[in-house]
Amino acid sequence: MKPAVMITGATRGIGRSLVYAFAQRGFDIAFCSGREEDCFLLSEELKKRYPDNRYFARACNVADGAQIKTFVTSAQDALGSLKILINNAGVGVFDSFTNIRAEDWQRIFAVNFMGPVMLCEELIPLFLQNEGYPKGIIVNIGSYSVEKYVPGNIAYAASKGSLKTFSEDLFCEYRKDGICVTYVSLGSVNTGFSRRFSANADLKMTPSDVAEAVASVAELMLGSKNLCISQLELRTTTPPEAPGVKE
Predict the structure, then answer these.
(1) Residue-range domains of the chain with CATH
(2) What is the pTM of this model?
């Protein structure tokens, strides 16, 4: 029996593909998004297609610590011990620096950075109680825009840069305790996340490409006593100079 995985931002784009990728592999899944109805509909779809798995779905604002605590506690009650956390939920405001308001910065960092931090605060003590190796796996979904300047992407890139540093330090702190932390640097993915980068959709990775890579890496770490993959960089095959592609 495979362990349970928790996925945030799960009902659209990459998150939805992640849920399906893990469901296909036989994992029990706790997932959340901002809307209860979306969670319910996805859960019903999964129960029909993969009835042997167990699912726990709830609306959860990952910028709200109280909601995170409730979600994690309820998910553990429903599924038992959790072993994988995938911090996928994210928001962005794509504009020049002078057009981004202070409240926009606060919201972006609350969801993209503090959300994963608070979820790790809740999950790491639970992971440490698990038997075997690894005791837990944390996957933080980031962005290649941390490495390369993208016009209009300053707030989103800054939040993901903070997430990358957090991931690297968390990996170093907990690897000896059997917890693997992986930061995933994503290039261009066709999700509709930002209209600003919507051109040349056929040249970009699909959400399923990303989900299959993440699920495969998670399974690889689960099957090894000595392997932690601290960083995973996913890029398109499109040359960087291609118009409309942010690589």
Answers:
(1) 4-234 (3.40.50.720)
(2) 0.93
